[in-house]
Amino acid sequence: MTIFSPDRARSITPLHRSNSPEAEARDQTPRLLKRCGEDVAGRLRSLPPLPGLPIRVEWAPALRTVRGLLLTGGGRGKEVHAASFVRERRIVFDEALRHDAGELSRILVHEVFHFAWVRLSNGARQSWRQLLRCEFARSACGELGWSSECRKSAIRSSTGVTPDRVWSEYACESFCDTAAWIYAGAGEHEEFTLARRFRETRRSWFRSMESHRAAGIRI
User: Fold this and answer.
1) Are residues 108 and 25 in the same domain?
2) Half-sphere exposure (CA, 13 Å, Cβ side) for 171?
3) CA-to-CA distance for 126 and 178, rounded, in angstroms?
4) Quick one: 80 and 163 in the same domain?
5) Residue 101: which residues within 8 A CB-CB, separation 6 or more?
6) DSSP-assigned beta bridge partners for residue 56
7) Both 17 and 109 in a single domain?
8) What's the CA gap between 145 and 176, in Å, rounded?
């Protein structure tokens, strides 16, 4: 998705990139939490180190999507809370989230883990997909966020072979929603509908992933 707003587009400056080992190893967690406020920082104490290059955080009013474009200021389109631009290393949040630390915490973790997903090894992503396929085989209903729920529903309602692209999108969104459930300290939420036994299997998968990444989860 892209920002469709001439005024904002002119204000965007290229983010300086460095491929030095020192830059890649710098933990971005403190910087991200500082940008989102003390209330959010207090809720995300369990976040692991997130080494990588800086991610720019931006805010815009009334975010909506139309045909792959991110629009600001309301009007037509589907309302969204945030959007990530992985190649540009930036996240745009809806201004309304400034007043809801709990929801901002959950969505911040979700968006940041989009950057983690693309840094996972092929083996790790395949392992996560296999976990999801086992859930499907056991008729697991529900999810840990709307983003993955709607894609899961599309897979279940499909009458033919599910395209790889659809499965890949679902795997990514479920990974990010699960990370938000684990790290955002949200307790219970109306979007947490996955059965407890499947949640705990996912938690174990994340703990195993962390244990093999002493320096943190790369973003």
Assistant:
1) yes
2) 23
3) 16
4) no
5) 37, 39, 40, 43
6) 90
7) yes
8) 9
pLDDT of residue 19: 63
pLDDT of 18: 53
- Altogether, the residues listed in the chain come to a count of 219
What pLDDT sits at residue 202? Answer: 98
Which amino acid makes up residue 196?
R
For residue 49, the tally of other CB atoms under 10 A from its CB is 19
Strands laid side by side in the 56-60 sheet: 56-60, 90-94, 82-85
Which residues, given as ranges, of the chain have pLDDT below 70?
1-19
E strands, the chain, in order: 2-4, 56-60, 64-66, 69-71, 78-79, 82-85, 90-94
**CA distances from residue 83 to 136, 137, 171, 210 in whole angstroms, order as listed:** 28, 31, 17, 25
For residue range 44-81, list pLDDT tens digits in order: 999 999 999 999 999 999 999 988 899 998 788 889 99
What is the pLDDT at residue 23? 78
Rg (CA), the chain: 17
What is the three-class DSSP state of 60? strand
**203 within domain boundaries:** yes
State the residue range of the domain holding 154: 122-211
Per residue in 146-157, pLDDT (tens digit) is 999 999 999 998
